[in-house]
Records
---
Amino acid sequence: MAASGVSAPTRTEVLHLYRSLLRVARQFCDYNIREYTKRRTVDAIRDNKNLTDPSQLAAAFSDGKAQLEVAKRQALVYSLYAPKVVNIFGVTNASHSSLGAIWISVVELVSGFMRFYG
Amino acid sequence: MASQFIRQTLTKTKPSTIVRRFSTAAAVASPTGYEEPTGVTMKGVKISGRPLYLDMQATTPVDPRVLDSMLPFYLSRYGNPHSRTHLYGWESETAVETARAQVAALIGASPKEIVFTSGATESNNISVKGVMHFYKEKKRHVITTQTEHKCVLDSCRHLQQEGFEVTYLPVGSDGLIDLDRLRKEIRPDTGLVSIMAVNNEIGVVQPLEEIGKICKEFNVPFHTDAAQALGKIKVDVEKWNVSLMSLSGHKIYGPKGVGALYMRRRPRIRVEPQMNGGGQERGIRSGTVPTPLVVGMGAACELAMKEMEYDEKRIKGLQERLLNGIREKIDGVVVNGSMDRRYVGNLNLSFAYVEGESLLMGLKEVAVSSGSACTSASLEPSYVLRALGVDEDMAHTSIRFGIGRFTTEEEIDKAVELTVKQVEKLREMSPLYEMVKEGIDIKQIQWAQH
């Protein structure tokens, strides 16, 4: 019996997940985890782009949502124990200028749209 | 939609307000006296921030997903897995068994063959000493290599003191053992062959399938220390024909203080327990199983299974970037150990005409290691490099770069820049290098005696 009630996610839902994951990635205080989350999100969305089977899509989507929950919790935990001194690159999540954040968001949005509609 | 997003970003409050919502007290009282706003001062060294971490063979950071799976077992589900009478015990036990299955799945074994220990060192001790003590009537000989981890070598030395015989196989200059030599050394009373899968210092991967075949032929138990190999290369206990395998949690982005021992059931290998007590873990390792650590190790193994391909591809690119970046700018760089049969995340380089201690002292903004973390207390050059036949002076200047899942291209570029700068600075000051540049062959010089 096929899994009933499990439908493939719509494009908007996937985009929303993608943006949420990137947003949560920016909240990590640890440079390495932040970069890894951003990179892994982009690569995972890109790898799953060509899936056609609805049950596979649904599985990948729910996996992504679960990872988003984990990331949200851990971003909070890491911020509670953030060391006072950051690594020698000297960039914390807080010190990302808002202009830079806007630029990154716009680029991500546009590339995300192009990826899914192009 | 985009404008709404931009408005949200512009008015976004900093994450520190999330902290305030939960507590008016300061965030965790930092016990560190060494962190100031302008940098870190420790042991007389001042750096502008925390160093870049490039020492993945010593230990790895805990993956946030692993930490997430561990925290409930510290907060609310804190039962002892051996308590049989209440929910706390039952849920703990379920979690331990799930973790056991996750570890077993990564190595291609059955969950019944996994015993949780306190780390790969304990697993190695149980394997080497436990097996030999159990079969001490008939088997008196152990074969191992010169490049093994200190815990294996120390256990063998302990066995030698008890009267067993140990053969330490030499390695070639590429770090690999000679299979014919191994075949010749096996005797009728050989009780164990112990050869590590991936060396922690030079990153060389031994030909384990062939060794497994030889051991099967002579019916000798084969133990391998797979602490550095787990989650990084494909580990299959059937293909390698191992009877015993030591695994470590903190090398695969899991917590420190936990490890596992794989013990084959068909044909059954028996060991004498090193920890006596209430008979937990099938009598092999008594003591309460630390649920959060074990759950963390299980989650780390499951993650490793999913991410192995992605990580390996990425780390290979980073290793090439590091090596090419350094080789472009300076010459006289030697890679210790075979380049073909190696794990991509380990790069052990020797720089000619540079003194090792001063190189490390100048590289304080990059956390790398020279020699292995276990032996760095002594001033001797690493025994592994000596076994490779590397000259004393080159062995002293070896640096081990460890690349992992979280390393970025930026970090690699910065490490290249700092290393090159430091090596060039030291070579400027080096009279030996001046002589080499003039064309004098250093080895031919007759140093004057006073």
---
Amino acid sequence: MTQKNINPLIELRDVVKNYQSEAGVFPALKNVNLNIERGEFLGIIGKSGAGKSTLLNMFTGVDGLTSGEVIVHANGESVSLHSLSENDLALWRGRTMGVIYQSFQLLPMLTLAQNVMMPMDMSDLYHPRKSRERALELLDMVELSEHAHKLPSLISGGQQQRVAIARALANDPPVIVADEPTGSLDSITADHIFKLFEQLVQSGRTIIMVTHDKGLMPRFSRHVEIVDGELFDNDSFPMKGKARMGEDRK
Amino acid sequence: MRPRWRKVLSDLIDNKARTLLVVLSIAVGVFAIGVIAGAYVIISDDMSISYAANNPANIELRMDDFDEDFLNTIRKFDGIKEAEARRVFNIRARPLGETQWTSIDVVTIEDFEENEVNLLTPVSGKEVPLKNEILLEQDVLEKMDAAPGDTLEIQLRDNSIKTVYVAGVVQDSSTGAVDFLAPPLAYISTDTLRLFDQTELFNRIYATVETGQDDDNHISVVLSALKEKIEKNDYEVGRTFRSLTHQHPLETTINAVLGILMALGVLIVFLSSSLIANTLNALLNQHLRHIGVMKLIGGRDKIIFKMYLVLLVAFGFLALLIAVPAGGQGAYGLAQFIATKMGFSLLGYRIVPIALIIQIAVGLLVPLVAGFVPVINGSRVTVQKAISGDLAGESSEQAEGGANRESRFEAIQFEATRILADRGIRIKRPLLISLRNTFRRRGRLILTLFTLTMGGATFISVFNVRVTLHEYVESVGNYFLADVTLDFDTPYRVNEIEQFAMQDPRVTYVEGWTFSGADILSIDGTTADNVSILAPPAESVLVEPLMVSGRWVQAGDEKKLTISEGIFDLYPDLQAGDYLPLKVNGKEESWEVVGIFKFINMEGILGYAPYEYISRDQNMANLSFSYRIVTEQHDRAYQEMMAEDLDAYFRDHGFHVQEATPGLATLDSAAESLDILISFLLIMALLTAVVGSMGLAGTMSMNVLERTREIGIMRAIGATDTRIITMVLVEGLLIGVISFILGIFLAVPFTYGLSWIVSTAIFETPIAVVFTPMGYAIWAGLVIVLSTLASVLPARSAARLTIREVLAYE
Ligand SMILES: Nc1ncnc2c1ncn2[C@@H]1O[C@H](COP(=O)(O)OP(=O)(O)OP(=O)(O)O)[C@@H](O)[C@H]1O
Ligand SMILES: [Mg+2]
């Protein structure tokens, strides 16, 4: 418990990611170091192909790394992600992280409510009856309770993304990771989603969000820029203060 | 319901067509296995039980006339349990008003009510014939059209005609079974003997032994002792037969059928496994993304495996629901078919537990094993790859190092196209797309080709084996080259018969033959078997033997014979030039075996010795009972006509004709039992072909399903229905053609293997393999039809997709 206050939430230490392809080795992340504190709303900004998604996949453990280490201190334990097996990682991720993709990734054969219940079912953290109630609450929070029993193909893209957010919150994880969550949405809907994120940060969660939209910069509590696999942590100092304030509120 | 189970249920019921495809691909194999395993068990159980139920005689003696008193002494003989006497004689019969005569052996049974050996099974009408009534064995009905209540005309030796009434039809699985070439049977009571001018004495004994009813050695010992005793009483014994109580005499043929069924079963298990693997692989590849999403949100391997376990078991269970009842019915149907052909009855419909167990095992285990490969592969793919979308199709194969091969293949294709283009041959673009598509999923293509090629190779081999068998039987026909065989009741001078026969201008050649029989003695001096010795003139042109070793008979041979390969059962090391201990006319003699020839062993051991010696030995020099006649033409119809004409002609001139048989008659009955086998082989071929094309149909619909998005894009850029249908059809046909080419080669070892199984089972000797283009031609046509059929439905459903559906497709 004491560790929690000393260590940052996520530490990236000398992370290198090379892609192997026919054309040869492509360095997508070049020796990246980054600490993320609790309660931050961190923006990762960069042009297309800069390595944003690659970096995000390092936090979630969804993809392997070439060298370096990613350590997450959450739920009272410190975990070096890439030393876990796929299997343990899946369970850990289900309980610790909510992941949101640009392309929603809902299961097409399940209703919205069932999609939201799925992480709770997978992690066995909630009793089935409790998980149903919780799923409906979360859908209510994203203003979709009236569609709860529809299939994903029958609702709009913005609505699907809100379901994905509800699903990401299902196990009440301390961290939310989102890869261009507003990328395929119109600006009004995107704004709506963004507001939802701001509420979540206020309620004490840590959110890491990837975007290529520099206009969103001021709305993050901190942002880093990535260019050709290298990280530029320009204004990390002023941001740190804000992050601490966020933590104090909790 | 928990969301995970909800997902499994949806996977099962949302896409009914796809579920049906998977379930059917499992069910086809499970059904076939059920039919085969069930039929196998029913036949092998019921054959011996139903045969034994008629209490077949272990010993049959054909001998001089004897009476009731003599029979009683046999009954008291040590080791004999039951003994019954029969009088068996040959007549010709025809239904009143018909012209065609049928040769029949009439069996006289002393007391139908007290009958204990070689029991008759009633088929229709009465079971006991009264005076001047007759019961027909059901085989008679294959030769003539008669039913209970009909009147038959009977022609006796002196050409007088009598009439009898058909009282009923029976089945006799024992009496006729030992002598494959004997005419069909009919039964009368002793009251009717007088009508046929027969004395009320017996000429055959049918007996069972007290112990060791299934021990051929024991039966043989009892038989030798009995025969010795009878001969001491100055009765002469002709041929003797032994049979085991629980062994159907056609067991070797039936075992050949069962052996083929077994081979077929194993083949089908393989084929259907690969079909199931293929279908499930394609289905589960589409699930890769789902697996990725579940892992993303916390799904552990255990949960995901459990979900797919339930899905796969559900597929298997649904398939069993269809395949188990259908397979049970099919098994009994097939067993019934074989039983009717082979002349025994079944004990009734039943579920065969072992067949059921095999079905359940295959229906559940094969989908599990086949399905878990893609599931495990799927769970190995990182979430990143699974979710990034475009992977669902190819990248799982590329991940296994396929990337390089793919590009090499492309390079070859590009090069080939360029070379063709240089020569002015342009491959059309849509054809090129089909070509590319065919080779895109290499694993699936290989499995599909495997099933279809196995089916094709089996199909082709069956036709080759069919010709091989017929060729062999035909070569055996070289022992029966005459057009008409004329048998008399009394011997006549060879010159006399020759002169009479040649009066008919259509007769070109006549030979008088004679016969003898001998016991083959084993080393300890007991009788081991009989040999029927045929004695044609040494210079006979009517035998063209297939020699295994040694030479054919010569005019000067005395106490020398050639013998059929069947002798190897008794003397495995016998060679030409060795001496064989025989008992001829009650005297022990040592004969030199001058040669060994091939013959159908089913007919027992056969020998040849020159007429010149045998007739002298029998004090019948220049006399003969039996004549081989060559006529101007040699086709079946001509031979039948000549047999009839010669029969009438000799009777008219006062000769005692027993029978005139057209030359191919003996061959026909041998060919008949082969045809049963061949029809099985054909069923086998069709089954494998069906499983093979089911595999192709499955592959094609999976391919189309997977390429839904692609097809949508082609549509969006203006591809017409025809173009899309053609694209899919060409792909299916291409697979068919490739499998045909592979099948041509695979058929060679298949043909050798199959003909080895069949020939060693029936003829107890491997035979020369013959190839025929017929199987290749029929399969070429069939494979084109099948692969078109297999692709037509997927092609049409591909063309029916609208762009909107395609873009909404996950
Ligand atoms: N599987 C892969 N194999 C090879 N190279 C890859 C692979 N995935 C990504 N890359 C390369 O790595 C670089 C970074 O990719 P990444 O997906 O992280 O970019 P991004 O910043 O998320 O871009 P976008 O904004 O377009 O999503 C790109 O140049 C890409 O071409
Ligand atoms: Mg990206």
